[in-house]
Design goal:
- It is a single chain.
- This protein has about 110 residues and is mostly helical.
- It folds into 2 domains: about 60 residues; about 40 residues.
- The chain contains 1 helix and no strands.
- This is t-SNARE coiled-coil homology domain-containing protein.
């Protein structure tokens, strides 16, 4: 009957070891959960930061493009004004040339 107490003692030692292992697994699960949560938080922060930076970059680019288009519009308006003035000058000169040609024909006619 010596075997029975020895078996009970072995079973008790195995039970204690099993409880110890279970406790270690619970601790590891807790640590892993904390690490996962921390990683998710960091990834969310990085994503938010990147989205903010991209939004800022897009807004800056839009502002620069708007300024560029405004500048280009003013430049085109200036060129349009110059072309209108050139056309007016050309029309004036053509009318003067026609007047002079008419006078020359008048003077070159036999009287």
């Amino acid at each position: 009957m010596e075997k029975e107490p020895m078996l009970k003692e072995i079973l008790h030692a195995l039970e204690l070891h099993s409880q110890h292992i279970d406790k270690r697994f619970e601790q590891m699960d807790f640590k892993m959960d904390n690490m996962r949560t921390d990683l998710e938080t960091k990834m969310d922060n990085v994503r938010t930061d990147l989205e903010t930076k991209m939004d800022n970059m897009r807004a800056n680019l839009e502002a620069r493009m708007d300024r560029g288009f405004d500048h280009l519009g003013r430049k085109i308006d200036g060129v349009r004004t110059d072309l209108t003035e050139t056309q007016d000058t050309t029309d004036f000169l053509l009318s003067k040339a026609a007047q002079h040609e008419k006078k020359l024909r008048h003077y070159s006619e036999p009287q």
